Amino acid sequence: MTADYDVVVVGGGPAGSTMASYLAQAGISVAVIEGAVFPREHVGESLVPATTPVLVEIGAIGRIDEADFPKKYGASWTSGLSGYIPLLGHDGLSHGWTADVQFVERNQPGVDRDYTFHVDRGRFDAILLKHAQESGATVFNGIRVHRVNFDDPELVSVECSAGPRRLTYTARMVVDASGRQTMLGRQLRTKVADPVFDQYAVHSWFEGLNRRALAPTEAQADHIFVHFLQVKDSWVWQIPITDKVTSVGVVSQKSRFREFGGDQDGFFWDMVASRPDLYDALKNAQQVRPFKTEGDYSYSMKQICGDRYVLVGDAARFVDPIFSSGVSVALNSARIAAQDIIAAHQAGDFGKERFATYENKLRRAVKYWYEFISIYYRLNVLFTAFVQDPRYRLDVLKMLQGDVYDGEEPKALAAMREVLATVEGNPDHLWHKYLGTLKAPTAAPSF
Predict the structure, then answer these.
(1) How far from 150 is each of 28, 159, 206, 240, 352, CA to CA, in Å?
(2) Is residue 24 a contact partner of residue 30, using CB atoms and an 8 Å limit?
(3) Backbone phi, then psi, for 69, in 5-degree steps?
(4) In 50, 168, 425, 444, which residue has its Cα 20 to 30 A from 7's Cα atom?
(5) β-strand partners of 173
(6) CA geometry: angle at 22 spanning 21 and 25, to 5°?
(7) How far is residue 342's CA from residue 124's CA, in Å, rounded to a whole number?
(8) How many CB atoms lie within 10 A of CB 407?
(9) CA–CA separation, 77 and 124 (whole Å)
C-alpha cells in the first residue's frame, strides 16, 4: 500500500513548520495538519539567539527581518528588594538584586547579529507555516487530529476530522508537533506531570506602558524584563510586542491562583501590587486584551521517539518559560530530529533506533535547561550573583542565549549546583534565608 506522504507532521506551530521546511527542502513528501486557521492568537514570545541559526538554515530569516518585530538585544531582571549581598569568593565585593545581559557580550556559533526578536506569535507562526508551504510542504488548516493508528507495520494512519467529516491520511511516519496538546503523549500515555513545577500564568497585552520608567537605562527599555515579585516563586514577564504594545504576564504556583477562586483580574492585580513601581506603570497603561491563562506548564514524556514517530517542541517537553526557551527548543528539536528523519528516509527504515542522535541531544539540552531553571527558582540570589560574577557571566550568558545543544554541560551550572548544595545544607549561610520553596528532587526526570 502506498502512503499519502512520507511524513505527516501534527501541528503547524514553530516546531511543526520548521520540521516541514527541513523535510520538504530535502525532497521528502510532507504534510502539516493544523487544527487552527492561521493567524491564531497566541501568548507573546521573546526569542533567544539560538533560534537564529535555524531560521537561517531553513531560509526564513529574511521573512522575519521583513516583519519588523521589535529587536531584542538583551534581558533584564528587577527586584523590589534593595541593598547589596556579599559576592561569594570575592572579599569586599557585593552585588545587587537586579541583573542584565547584552547578547553582544558573547559570540555564538551561527549567529550573525547581536540581537534576536520579540514576536507576536500570531504573525510569527503564520510566517513560518507559509514558509513551510512555499518550501514544498502540503499544509492543511482547520483539521483536527484525533489519534494515530500504528497497527499496520508499514504505515501510520492519522485519523482526523474537519467539522463533521472524518479524514485519514497515511504516512511512513508521524511527527508530533502538537504543542501542549501533547497528542501522542496523551494517546500513548507517556506524559508525566513535573514533580516540582506546577506553575500558572495570567497574562494580557497593554498599550502605552512606559517601559523606560521600569528600566535602569533607556538602552534596556526594550529588553525582555523579568520582575521578581515579593511573593515566593512568582514573577512577571514584560515583553515588547510592538513599539506601543507590551505583553505582561504573572507566573506563580497554581495553588496560589486557586486561592482567588478563578478570578483572573483579582489574581493578576493582587500579585502585581507587591511591586508598586510595576503596579503604577500598568495602571497608567490601557489593557487591550482580556486576561488569558496558561496552565500545565511543566511536564515530560517517558518516550520522545519510537518506531515511526518522534515528538518535537512542546509535544516532547515543556519547562517553565522563565528563560524564554520555548521557541528555541521547538526550532532546535525540529532541526536535530529532521537530520535523523532525512537519514531514516534515505535508509528506508523509520525504526526507533534511527532517532537516537535526536533523543540523546535533546535530553541533554533540556536537562540543562531544567536544572538551570530549578536553581533559579530555588535561590534567585544565586542567579543574579552568577550573572554579575566575571568568573561565570559568559557561561550564564551562553545558557541564556539558548546555546545548550553542543553536549557540554555549562561550567557555571556545575558551580551553581555546588553553591546551592552548600546553602541548603547550612542554616547559618548568609544566603540560606533567601531559599525559595520549590526544590528539584535528586531524581528529577531526565527529560
Answers:
(1) 21, 11, 46, 44, 13
(2) yes
(3) -70, 155
(4) 50
(5) 7
(6) 80
(7) 26
(8) 10
(9) 25
Q: Are 261 and 251 in contact (CB under 8 A)?
A: no
C-alpha 331/C-alpha 47 separation (Å) is: 11
Torsion of CA 410, 411, 413, 417, to 10 degrees: 150
The beta-strand segments (E) located in 302-440 are: 305-306, 309-311
Q: How many other β-carbons are positioned within 10 Å of the β-carbon of residue 301?
A: 21
Contact present, 248 and 236 (Cβ < 8 Å)? yes
- Do residues 429 and 176 make contact, with C-beta atoms less than 8 angstroms apart? no
Look at residue 59 and give its three-state secondary structure.
coil
Q: How many CB atoms lie within 10 A of CB 93?
A: 12
pLDDT tens across the length of the chain (447 residues): 689 999 999 999 999 999 999 999 999 999 999 998 877 776 768 899 999 999 999 999 999 999 999 999 999 988 876 666 665 665 544 556 678 889 999 999 889 899 999 999 999 999 999 999 999 999 999 999 999 999 999 999 999 999 999 999 999 999 999 998 999 999 999 998 887 777 789 999 999 999 988 887 888 888 899 888 888 778 899 999 998 999 999 988 888 888 998 899 999 999 999 999 899 999 999 999 999 988 756 788 999 999 999 999 999 988 777 777 889 999 999 999 999 999 999 999 999 999 999 999 998 888 888 888 888 888 888 888 888 888 889 999 998 888 888 878 888 999 999 989 999 999 988 788 888 887 755 434 445
The CA distance from 353 to 384, in Å, is: 41
Burial class (CB in 10 A: 0-12, 13-18, 19+), 160: buried
The pairing of beta strand 99-102 with beta strand 156-162 = unpaired
CA 433 to chain centre: 30
Whole-Å CA distances, 173 to 4, 154, 293, 352, 355: 11, 9, 34, 11, 12
Paired with 158 in beta bridges are 148, 169
Instruction: Say whether the peptide bond before residue 290 is cis (omega within 30 degrees of 0).
Output: no
Identify which of 325, 309, 98, 366 has the alpha carbon closest to the alpha carbon of residue 183. Answer: 309
Q: What is the pTM of this model?
A: 0.90
Grid cell 487591550 in the structure block, residue? 288
CA 391 to chain centre: 27
Cα–Cα nearest to 17, from 99, 182, 135: 135
Strands 138-141, 116-119: pairing is unpaired
Report the alpha-carbon distance of residue 131 to residue 39 in Å, rounded. 14
The maximal CA–CA distance of the chain, rounded, in angstroms, is: 75
The helix/strand/coil state of 401 is coil
Residue type at 418 in one-letter notation: E
